[in-house]
Structure formats: structure tokens, C-alpha cells
Task: structure prediction
Amino acid sequence: MKLLVTGAAGFIGSNFVRRSLYLRPDLQITVLDCLSYAGRLSNLDGLLDQITFVEGNILDKQLVDQLISKTDLVVHFAAESHNDNSLTDPDPFIQTNINGTFVLIQAAAKHGKRFHHVSTDEVFGDLPLEGSARFTPDTPYNPSSPYSASKAASDHLVRAWARSFGLKATISNCSNNYGPFQHEEKLIPRTILLVAAGIKPKVYGSGANVRDWIFVDDHSDGVWAVIEKGQLGETYLLGSENQRSNLQVVRAILAAMGRQEDFIDFIADRPGHDRRYAIDASKTIKKLGWTPTEDSFEQKLPEVIDFYSRLEINLDSISHSGLSNKSKKPLTFEAP
Result:
């Protein structure tokens, strides 16, 4: 099988390629990535002799058409994905997430190629902090930020092209991922890097906002379950029942790294900050036989901490770090 994977120099896409080659070594994978700030060729270290890497933009109609004409399956990860950035400058989110998806599905429909669209649970808005409500495939869309609105729009485009133009598509909406190769602007790597450098991590508001965390390899396995067993035109939700408040996540990292639980700076909450996400993945589990294997957030946390603590990162690139230090000295810590 020939795969075109968009955005695979980013966090989830690079892990998907790594996982796919490990489980399916006969795959022929082409990666299309524009290497924006969140896409790094180094995320594919050790894989470049096994794949074809194309530096390019999903908005490039000619390039996209050429690549899709030669593939069997398109797996679409490419997206601008940081909520804070979307509030500051929404334009890249509209261009990439909406217009870029439009270019891809036009080509996929034209050439009759199988298309899988990777999306987020943030399209559903949020849930009350209290209670047991969870998102299902039938939950109405209610996006809160330019990022989630742009992903909601791309979901609708894929569905419309499946219905009106025969696009052979499936969609998966996933909860928050964690694991290696995530950009340092995100909560878990940012917290690890700051704590490793002896700097208090910053937490929005009281830290009560809840996310449903899934290890990135489980997400990749779920995407393959949808590709291989899912019904065309259907949406499948991927989550692993690991709800944690932001404060719980930060305190778990602090404990694992030998810091006191009050080693935190609380800052003003961001506009439109969703309260809680929670996924009901029962449809995916029942119909596709997929089950996340990593059912404990704390079990994988030491592995994730070890990965990020070994990186050389310019701390100025970490959102809300408030630092002026330009050093790229490796960040290290001593385990308790």
C-alpha cells in the first residue's frame, strides 16, 4: 500500500509514521510537510531512509494533485493546532485547516483515493466540569476558538465531499495526545522543560480545566482501525478514559521530577478556555475492535519525561515562559 501522510513532521503525524512502519514495514510512505515552526524534520530521524519526504504545502494544488494521483491512501494530519496562536493570529488556521483540507479532498475525490481525516474533540466545544457527560459522534459541533472552528469546518467539508462527490472518506476525532516529539508550546512538554530548568510552570486560571489524555501510539492504532475496518462516510471517536485536570497533570509531572506540588505560577485564564473534554469511544471499540492499551497516564509519564528532559530547547520558544535566556544548553534533571 502507498500512503501519503500530510503533516508528518509534526507531533502526531511523525509518531503515526513511526508506528506504521514498525507494525507494517512493507508500507510505502510519502510524507508531505511544509516544515512550519511545529514541523521538524528531526521528528523523522531514523525514518528518512524508509520514506519519501516532500517539503511542500497542502495549499499547493499542483503538488497535491501529483502526489495523490500516485498513492492509495491519504492520511491527513496537517493542521495548525495551537489554541493560543489561533487567538493571536487566526489566518494560518483558516488557510491550512480549511483551505488546505479543501485542496486535498478535491484531489482525492478526483482520483478516487481513500481519504482519512484526523480531527479533534475540540470541535464539540466543552462539557461541564461536573458530571459524566462525554462527546459522542452525534454531539453537536460548538467550537470555541478559531482553531477548533477551523477544524470543525474541515470536518464538514470532508463529510460534504463524501456525500456529494463520492469521496471515500472516514473521520476520527481524538482527545488530547501526549508522547514524544510534541512541540514545546504544549502543556506536557512545556511543563517538563521548565521544571527541568528549575522554573515554575505556568497554569491558566485555577488549573481546573479537564482534558482526556491518550498516548500517541494508541491514537495511531485507532486511526489504522478506522482505515481498515471503518465504514466510509462515518466518524469515529478515539479516547482512553484518562481525564485529568491541567493542575493534576502538572502536579503529576512535578511529583515525578521531585518537585513540590506548589512549584507553580498561576496566570490569568485565556479567552474561551474550554472547561472539560471527555470522549465516549464505545462506538469505535465495539464496531472496530480497537482498545487503547495505555490505560494509565501515570504509567507512561516517566518515559515521556525522560524524552523531553534530554532535548536541547531554546526556552524562549516555550509559550508563557517569560524568559530572556537564549541559551540552548541541554536541560537535565535528577530523578528523585
User: Anything to note?
Assistant: The domain at 2-179+215-238 is CATH 3.40.50.720 (Rossmann fold).
